[in-house]
Amino acid sequence: MKLANLIPAHCEPPPLALPYPLALGRAGLSGFPSPAQDYEGRTLDLNERFVKRPSATFFLTVTGDSMVKLGINEGDTLVVDRSIDPRPGHIIVALVDGEITIKRYELRGNVPCLCSGNPRYAPIPLVDLDCQVWGVVRSVIHEYTV
Length: 146
Fold this sequence. Notes:
- This protein is mainly beta and about 150 residues long.
- Helices cover about 5% and strands about 35% of the residues.
């Protein structure tokens, strides 16, 4: 992972409220929603929804395949919050022996480990390693291309 992939969040992002219809996007078969629901005037600001603490938030582009089973793919953008104390089960961004990595923090017995979401990669026990937690992943932005 290259340091060029780190992008700080704007300290005070300008509001950008986009249309957010009340209708739910059901992934299965359903009845037809009322066309009037599209015009109810509800909006959503992605900064408000995903960036809870702007001064402690940064974005990171993912490289590699170690987190694919956890829904994090190469090219995805992570929203990372430095103000959250990591707990077991959190997905974190850490600097381990000089390399940036994205892993799930787990306790195996009493040993803290960084675990991938790909069975090809073994857990990394945090014993005798230099590890600095940079933040906890709050959201994953996955883009589909046409």
